[in-house]
Amino acid sequence: MIFAPSQPTDLQQKPRREGGFTLMEMLIVVAILGMMTLIATMAVSKALKRQRLEVAARQLQSFIEKAYIRTVDTHASVFVVLFPVASDGSRAVDLVGDTNGDLQLSDSDEILETTLLTNDIVVLTDAWPVIPATFKGKNVTAIACDTMGRAMDPSVSPAQPLSGQFLALTHRDMTGSVPSLTPRIRYDLTMDRLWHCTMSQPTKFTY
Hints:
Elements: H1 10-13, H2 23-74, E1 78-82, E2 91-97, E3 110-117, E4 121-126, E5 141-145, E6 151-153, E7 160-161, E8 166-171, E9 185-191, E10 197-199, E11 203-204
Antiparallel strand pairs: 1-2, 1-5, 2-3, 4-8, 5-6, 6-7, 8-9, 9-10, 9-11
C-alpha cells in the first residue's frame, strides 16, 4: 500500500508568535506619538501667542484709560507717552503729569506710572502726534487728557483737540515676509474726542 506524503500542518509551517510587539512596531508607534505631540505643542504655542497679543492690547487700553482717572485725582492734565523701541525690543508707555499746566510735554513733567510692551508685541502703526522736542532724551509720540476730559494733541501750541488717533498692535511672529504665526491679525486702540480708548476686534492685515 502506498501512502501520500503527509502535508505539514500550520504549526509545522510557521512557528507560533508569542504575544507583544516587535521592535519595529514599537519604533513606529513612538514616531507617530512624537509627531502628534509636536503638532499639538505647535498648536498650543500659537494659541498662547494669539492670546498674549489680545491680553497685551487690553492691558494697554486699560492703561490709557487710567490717564483720565489720574487727571480727576490730580486736577491736572496727564500725558500718555509712547517711547521708541529699546535695545531689548520692549517699549515703555508712561503716564506723565503736566507739571507746568501748559499741555506741552517737557522734561520737568513728572512720570506717574509706567507699563511695558514686551519685545513680542509690535506697534504696527503709531498715529499719535510726534512731540517736536525730545522727552527724557528720547523722540516720543504722545496724547494728552486735559482737565475737561478731552483728548488733546500736545505736539502743537496751544494744544488742540484730536480724535481718531490710534495704535495698532500685533505679535512679532506675525510680521516679516514669511510669518511663523498666521493669520496676521492686529488690534487697533483708537482715541475718541472725549477721553475713551476703544479696542477693535482682531483685524487681518497684510505686511
